[in-house]
Specification:
The chain is an alpha+beta fold. Helices cover 35% and strands 14% of the residues. The protein contains 32 helices and 29 strands. The strands form ten sheets. Strands 4-12-11-8 form a four-stranded mixed β-sheet, with no helix packed on it. Strands 14-22-21-18 form a four-stranded mixed β-sheet. It has a three-stranded antiparallel β-sheet with strand order 3-6-7, with no helix packed on it. Strand 9 and strand 10 form a beta hairpin. Helix 16 runs antiparallel to helix 20. It is globular and about 110 Å long.
């Protein structure tokens, strides 16, 4: 490149370009406007004016700033604007500022203007700086087109284009393409500015940058290429010459939502704002239309002079507005509202085409280094099968702006510090999101070679690789045997169980142990307890008698013990009819008799989603609307109850009944949540919804049950909380969640096989000891969590190691706490340690957090002191002439599933040196026993 001939060629090319630029006055729209919008307006525009200078309007350009005139049309070559852009890179006053990294790692600035761009600006000023009347420029991202695009990149594995297919309907339609590069190190990068793009039939579509506009009806393909990689997008053009009228519900309502007008902090609050009220998140479009057009005639809407309408002058802050400036006159939002008012501000007649869903793309990104930019694109799909690019009409937010910042209006995200963030886009009533991981630019990391026991490990490893996190080592056999006994059967391994397992030299002994424990009755009891909590099995006033609760519990136990496919259990539950004694599953409809609460319980328990918000307004952070809420509730509106011959028993049956939407006062026709509206003629509504919910294709059921099972073994769900699945609370590992659900379905809903997959995975068998890379990880399963034993299991293991049987109502002496059928049967210990009351279906009822009252109860309560004495384990071993060292070792093995270390044994022997008789030895050894029961190592699974 330094050869004299090459230099001469380069100089000749630049000279030719400069000569060409000087030969004619530049075209403002294609040559000057992009330079100003990409390099100047972000710092010198309506929202920000460095040096009190505005370059977004011609008036601002000529007025200058607080130091000097920006341009001098009498001597344009000497204008300050040209002097600043011609400074050397790195100069303090260069415009635009060149790229630099701040102390917090954020990158600002960009490349200086090229010689060609500078000459174009000069020629434009010489020509008198012509500017289209009334045009206000908008800040746009700087062009980042790379050089040497003809050279392939060996690290680039593929390029991906969004959307993957484009349909252009009517003359007003358009679609912007986003192109993402995927690299060998699992990172992604926006390469959109640098791609080459062309249409197979240029007559059908017009391409501006990477945005497609319709010209003539037909079908074609658009090819995108970048550094040797290619991608193709199929394009369909329909009604290219037809205008598209503006609709209130389809076009205006999304603008109000995207601009934040109908949020709870603005006009969507109960009292409204400044005397103007809108429905929260647009749940009442007809009411909103009235308030905009009729409540204050002639002010909010001005049909004669649309641009003078208060809803426009307020939003552009031409008149004072408490909410500040929402958009300007050149924005898509303004154009929609102006066109609607100009057309008469009508409400839509009859049924219109409305969106049914949106897609936010890309769905995942891994950005390397701070300051990386990546745009989002949002596509709305409508009820007639058409689609629209609604990126500019969507509002955006980030769950973690320390890692990823996002422009709330444009959807352009910027990487910041290392971490993970979930980004949401909301259009109309729809919300979708995408995950973004940010890793440091310079990080010492090499991908470890890790063995994978099954599909679970593969998904976990892939996510950890993206995060540049190395998982902890595999736990040893001593830790594994204790962990798996507690998780699978709620008991500690006896010293004999432990010794047998450790002595086994079979390399597959862990899987064999898992298989054996899964087939025990104790395993069944653990899962009967868990589902009894979610189904609220308990006595309740005059609704559920003890006999009914016991029969309900026994029905569930029989189904789980016989390994009935879980979808069949739930289908039987939701379709059950008859007496609460003769058909115990009917107690599900007796525990909760209010139709709306029953509906919410079904969604929360079996779909893992909380729809309560949608009872009063559209859900602010999820996809559910009021209409969907009441239409789903209509499936349960016909559940009826009557007395049986035994006054303690109720008969559950289907009768007449409808559900009304309180907003419209119209009958809500049954519709599956997030699904279709079935034909209910002559059919049981409950049977229809049960069939839909439990079929293999249902998008909620298998994922929800899989997540509940996963959370039991890891102390946290892939979605956490497990019953709060929503757009704004995404799974930490979507691919893992999808694959777990797929396997659950493939196993014919046999949850034992899913349990086996989990417990035999390397992920479950990780140590709790962390390394430098995973010390702060709480959601990606790079190490095992230290988990407090739940109340029932802790009481049972205390009973086990002290040899003291429990006695609970309705159960024989020696029964386990996990066997309790009635949620209202409890003890002080169980309440203190957070046993679920079963008053609600919320997973939060089980309290796993340690507390001071728990510590005090173990230290001073009867549970440990009395049981150690009454169980007489120490006394019996002393009578058997065992030495204190043998007794200590036995207590350690019994309580902690490990022998004492040499240091521990030496320290404990010190306490025994003055114990010379039976009584003193007993007291010291029982104190040691008490200390073990109060240790974190005993109370926690690890």
């Amino acid at each position: 490149m330094n050869h004299p001939i090459w230099k001469n060629v380069c100089h000749s090319v630049v000279a030719a370009l400069l000569t060409e630029a000087a030969s004619a006055a530049p075209d403002f729209a294609t040559e000057i406007q992009p330079i100003l919008e990409q390099n100047c307006v972000s710092c010198h525009g309506a929202d920000k004016q460095k040096g009190a200078l505005r370059l977004d309007t011609r008036a601002g350009l000529l007025e200058g700033g607080d130091t000097d005139l920006a341009v001098d049309l009498k001597a344009p070559e000497s204008s300050l604007l040209l002097k600043l852009v011609r400074h050397a890179p790195g100069h303090d006053d260069i415009m635009p500022p060149t790229e630099e990294k701040s102390k917090d790692g954020k990158v600002s600035g960009g490349p200086p203007l090229t010689e060609v761009q500078t000459k174009l600006l000069e020629n434009w000023l010489v020509a008198g700086a012509p500017w289209p009347d009334g045009l206000q420029l908008q800040a746009k991202e700087r062009s980042r087109r790379e050089a040497n695009l003809d050279q392939s990149d060996p690290n680039l594995t593929s390029i991906e284009v969004f959307p993957k297919q484009v349909s252009l309907e009517t003359s007003a339609d358009f679609h912007r393409l986003i192109v993402i590069g995927h690299y060998k190190d699992a990172t992604t990068r926006d390469v959109t500015p640098s791609v080459d793009i062309s249409a197979a039939d240029a007559a059908l579509v017009r391409i501006e940058g990477t945005t497609l506009f319709p010209q003539v009806d037909g079908e074609t393909s658009v090819e995108i290429s970048y550094r040797g990689k290619k991608a193709t997008v199929q394009v369909v053009v329909k009604e290219a010459k037809k205008a598209r009228p503006v609709s209130f519900r389809r076009d205006v309502m999304p603008v109000l939502t995207a601009s934040g007008c109908n949020t709870g902090s603005c006009h969507g609050s109960a009292r409204g704002q400044d005397g103007f009220n809108l429905s929260l998140f647009g749940y009442d479009p007809q009411g909103d239309h009235y308030r905009l057009t009729r409540e204050m005639p002639g002010r909010r809407i001005n049909l004669a002079l649309p641009e003078d309408s208060l809803m426009l002058t307020k939003a552009t802050e031409k008149v004072p507005h408490t909410g500040g400036k929402l958009f300007d006159e050149s924005s898509a939002a303004y154009k929609v509202l102006h066109a609607w008012i100009k057309d008469g501000a009508h409400y839509d007649d009859g049924d219109i085409v409305l969106p049914t869903s949106i897609e936010v793309r890309p769905t995942q990104a891994v950005l390397k280094g701070a300051g990386q930019k990546l745009p989002l694109t949002v596509r709305a799909i409508y009820s007639d099968g058409s689609d629209r690019d609604v990126t500019s009409l969507t509002t955006y937010s980030t769950s973690n702006d320390n890692s990823v910042e996002i422009d709330a209006r444009s959807g352009l995200l910027t990487s910041a510090k290392r971490g993970e963030s979930f980004l949401m886009g909301r259009f109309q009533t729809f919300t979708e999101g995408m995950q973004t991981i940010v890793i440091p630019d310079q990080l010492s990391y090499s991908k470890p070679d890790l063995p994978a026991a099954n599909y679970i490990d593969g998904h976990v490893y892939q996510k950890l690789h993206k995060l540049r996190v190395i998982p902890s080592d595999t736990c040893d056999d001593t830790v594994f045997v204790r962990r798996v006994y507690l998780d699978l059967i709620g008991r500690l391994p006896t010293p004999e169980d432990r010794a047998t397992f450790l002595a086994d030299e079979d390399p597959n002994k862990r899987a064999a142990l898992v298989d054996r424990l899964i087939e025990t009755k104790e395993f069944t009891e653990i899962w009967v307890m868990k589902w009894s909590e979610l189904l609220q099995i308990r006595t309740f006033q005059n609704q559920v008698s003890y006999k009914a609760a016991l029969l309900y519990h026994n029905w569930l136990r029989e189904r789980i013990a016989s390994n009935t496919p879980f979808n069949e259990i739930v289908r039987e539950l939701l379709t059950s009819k008859g007496g609460t004694f003769s058909t115990p599953a009917t107690n599900f409809f007796q525990v909760e008799q209010e139709t709306l609460l029953l509906t919410e319980n079904v969604a929360q328990v079996f779909m893992g989603t909380r729809i309560q918000c949608a009872q009063c307004h559209n859900h602010p952070f999820d996809r559910w609307t009021m209409e969907e809420y009441y239409r789903f509730a209509a499936f349960f509106a016909q559940v009826k109850r009557k007395k049986a011959e035994d006054p303690r028993e109720q008969i559950i049956f289907d009768g007449g009944g409808q559900m009304k939407n309180p907003l419209t006062n119209q009958t809500a026709e049954p519709k599956f949540l997030g699904g279709e509206a079935p034909d209910t003629s002559g059919k049981s509504r409950r049977e229809l919804v049960a069939q839909w919910l439990t079929e293999p294709e249902n998008p909620w059921f298998a994922r929800n049950v899989s997540n509940i099972i996963w959370a039991h073994f890891f102390g946290i769900g892939i979605v956490e909380p497990v019953d709060d699945v929503r757009i704004s609370n995404p799974p930490s590992n979507p691919e893992l969640m999808d694959d777990l659900a797929k396997h659950f379905v493939d196993y014919n809903f046999d949850f034992k096989r899913l349990v086996r997959d989990i417990c035999t995975s390397q992920t479950y068998q990780r140590s709790t000891r962390v390394n430098e890379s995973n010390a702060t990880d709480t959601r990606n399963f790079s190490h095992a969590r230290v988990r407090r034993l739940r109340a029932e299991v802790l009481l049972d293991v205390v009973s086990q190691v002290t040899s003291t049987p429990n006695k609970f109502k309705g159960l024989p002496k020696g029964a386990r706490a996990v066997q309790i059928a009635d949620g209202n049967t409890s003890t002080y210990f169980l309440k203190t340690f957070g046993r679920a009351t079963r008053e609600t279906v919320c997973s939060c009822e089980v309290k796993m957090e340690p507390s001071l009252s728990q510590a005090l109860h173990l230290l001073n309560g009867d549970t440990t002191h009395n049981r150690i004495r009454s169980g007489q384990r120490v006394v019996n071993m002393l009578k058997e002439k065992k030495t204190p060292e043998e007794i200590i070792r036995h207590l350690y093995l019994t309580c902690l599933s490990r022998p004492p270390t040499d240091a521990e044994m030496a320290k404990l022997q010190n306490y025994l040196k003055d114990a010379n008789d039976f009584q003193s030895k007993r007291e010291v050894l029982e104190d040691i026993f008490w200390a073990l029961l109060n240790s974190k190592e005993f109370i926690f699974n690890h």
